[in-house]
Amino acid sequence: MLQKHKSQLTLLFITLSCIFLCQCRNEQKIKQPKLIIGIVVDQMRYDYLYRYYSKWSDGGFKRLLTEGYSFEDAQYNYVPTFTAPGHTSIYTGTTPAVHGMIANDWYDRSSGGMIYCTDDATVKTVGSPSEKGLMSPRRELTETIGDMLKLSNNGQSKVIGIALKDRAAILPAGHSANGAYWFDDATGWWITSSYYMKQLPEWVKKFNDEGRTNQYLSKPWTTLLPIEEYTESIADNNPYERPFFSEKSPVFPHDLPNLKPQNGGYGLIKATPFGDDLTADFAIAAIKNEKLGKGKYTDMLTISFSSTDYVGHQFGTTAIELEDTYIRLDRDIAQLLSFIDTYIGKENVVIFLTADHGAADNPHYLADKGIPGGFFDENEIAAKIHAFVKEKYGVDPILQFTNLQFYLNKQKIADNKLNLDTVEEAIANKVIEFKGVERAIPAYRLYTYRNDFITKKILNGYNPSRSGDVIINLLPEYIPYDTTGTTHGAPYVYDAHVPLLFYGGNIEHGKSAEEEAITNIAPTISELLGIQYPDGCTGEPLHITMKH
Ligand code: ZN
Ligand code: ZN
Fold first, then answer.
1. Ligand 1 mean position, distance from CA 168 (Å)
2. How far is the CA of 281 from the centre of ligand 2 (A)?
3. H or E element: which one contains 74?
4. Which residues contact 141 (CB under 8 A, 6 or more apart)?
5. Residue ranges per domain, the chain?
6. What share of the chain is helix, strand, coil (3-state, %, to 5)?
7. I need a labelling partner for 42 at 20 to 30 A (CA). Which of 172, 323, 495, 540 fits?
8. Residue 300 and residue 304: Cα distance in Å, rounded?
9. DSSP code for 117
10. Is 125 labeled as catalytic in the residue annotation?
11. What pLDDT does 141 receive?
């Protein structure tokens, strides 16, 4: 039905106009770009594009906005808005209900414990003695754009994923990628796993040997611009930020060399803008050394900038630290675009930039302005619900409370002659009494529950074999998190509304105010390349104005 509906739409657009991307289907041969670069900025809210606009250089975000095509209302269409589901949805064109990445960690019924999305004990670390490389994309249930590209030409395209976070490198690149590289806290090196290769390429070894992580951590973090120019942020010393360990207050300059030993060693770089600088350096080295875009077939590079998320979590959305991280990321993007100009030319690349989710404002900060919001203590609610069911039924069938979902032991419920639906309902009815809860839905009622935007997003994030049995949604600006900094995960716009920019190739400058689901990115890239959509795709191609 969906396919039929789509082809009817396509016909309609072809007859209506010649400016739509889908008309490219009618051309005799699609001219594929030499290189596709997907950029995900971790935790970048839509409004940051304009909030920091006066601080952008000419060559970075401003260039993408003034030369590219911007979708101003790109939205996540599921919950929870976390990193693994976000990156996977961008590149697979579908939601966790189909691709299975329901969170970063979840309760695994078969092993009876928590698992991490990309954990894989069957592989080995490549590039360091640490265990940080025991990772693969095997739990990602569907194909990515990179997989489709490789399937389209008998594996001739090169596909590579890069991010400080393992999941943000692995999940976008997909199952058949040539490589995915992420950061090893123990050594400060870029590593991979035996899923991809037996040993690091020479250029990666050489990059690691240069010791850039150490260089970036060898001097204090001061603001790039004079600190009094950071007028989009609140005072440097404010109560909504979390200082680094051993730091008296969360203020500049952050003395990185002295903070390093007590803040995760090399891992400290992740919560500074220099983690993004290192990522950009490494991405450019990958393009050069792998000769991406220089072969006969289209190549693909997926880059995720993770430091924006670490800094956002620690310092919140109003911090000078966050503003400085974005100002420096803008220079990284400018460096990348300028490199592409001389390397293969803008016309031979297609770049898209988006985010895996946004972020809430710190609830204390909002409260100080009289705006509703609050903190939700997951441990407290879990303890109270455990006690409630024990008291009510004489047994405790709760296996786990995680990602705002209760997992129940169905066997125990049956053995005690209890009814699963009744137990789910009782928990949901109790949970709704707690402050900050907007709704709690028993899983068996998901398909018949009030069908508003929140239930739709819960359904799109619900995977029956991986999700829990009672699903909670919180009120706007309530976060299950520390009282300093911030987090994300909600269905509301602050977490769901992200930038979406396309640039390069034949793409003309323009913008659209139409609401678009994040799942439309993958079919758009597929259509640009004239290749099949990823197998689980539930999105449809975006209409971008193209030059002819
Ligand atoms: Zn994220
Ligand atoms: Zn995060």
1. 8
2. 23
3. strand 69-75
4. 98, 99, 100, 536
5. 29-345, 374-479
6. 40, 20, 45
7. 540
8. 13
9. T
10. no
11. 98
Q: Which of 384, 379, 383, 411 is nearest to 397 (CA)?
A: 411
From the CA of 354, the nearest ligand is: 1
How far is CA 344 from each of CA 63, 156, 204, 320, 546, rounded to the nearest angstrom?
A: 17, 19, 22, 36, 20
pLDDT score for 11: 44
CA of 397 to the centre of ligand 1 (A): 32
Burial class of residue 547 (count of CB atoms within 10 Å of its CB; 0-12, 13-18, 19+): exposed
Phi, psi (5° rounding) for residue 408?
Answer: -110, 150
Ligand 1 centroid to Cα of residue 263, in Å, is 20
Amino acid residing at 305: F
Catalytic residue among 15, 66, 81, 83: 83
As a whole number of angstroms, the distance between CA 375 and CA 218 comes to: 37
pLDDT in tens, 239-260: 999 999 999 999 999 999 999 9
Q: Quick one: tokens of 268?
A: 């400290």
280 C-alpha vs ligand 2 centroid, how far in Å?
Answer: 20
Query: 170 C-alpha vs ligand 1 centroid, how far in Å?
Result: 14
Q: What is the DSSP string of 248-292?
A: SSS-SSB-HHHHGGGTTGGGGGGGSTHHHHHHHHHHHHHHHHTTT
CA of 187 to the centre of ligand 2 (A): 23
Residue 499: predicted pLDDT? 98
CA of 305 to the centre of ligand 1 (A): 9
- Which bound ligand lies closest to the C-alpha atom of 312? 2
Residues 541 and 520: beta-carbon distance below 8 Å: yes
| Per-residue pLDDT, 24 | 47
First vs last C-alpha separation in the chain:
32
Domain 29-345: assigned CATH number: 3.40.720.10
CATH of 374-479, one of 3.30.450.40, 3.40.50.2300, 3.30.1360.150, 3.40.630.30: 3.30.1360.150
Please report how the helices 274-289 and 307-315 are oriented relative to each other, as an axis angle in degrees rounded to 10. Answer: 170
Q: Report residues of the chain scoring pLDDT below 50.
A: 1-4, 6-7, 9-27
Minimum-distance ligand to the CA of 485?
2
**8 A C-beta contact, residue 428 and residue 405:** no
Q: Which long-range contacts (CB under 8 A, 24 or more apart) does 243-247 make?
A: 244/268, 244/271, 244/314
Task: Report the alpha-carbon distance of residue 301 to residue 169 in Å, rounded.
Answer: 10
Q: Which ligand is nearest to the CA of 81?
A: 1
Cα of 392 from ligand 1 centre, angstroms: 39
Both structure tokens of 445 = 């009622």
Exposed, middle or buried, 34 (CB in 10 Å: 0-12/13-18/19+)? buried
Kindly report the pTM of this predicted structure: 0.94
Beta partners for residue 108, in sequence order: 113
In 3D space, the residue among 27, 2, 159 whose CA is nearest the CA of residue 548 turns out to be 27
Report CA(488)–ligand 1 centroid distance (Å). Answer: 8
| Pair 184, 165: CB distance under 8 Å | no
* Angle ∠(409,82,244) on CA atoms, nearest 5: 110
Burial 433-464 (b: 16+ CB within 10 A, else e): ebebbebbbbbebeeebeeeebbebbbbbbbe
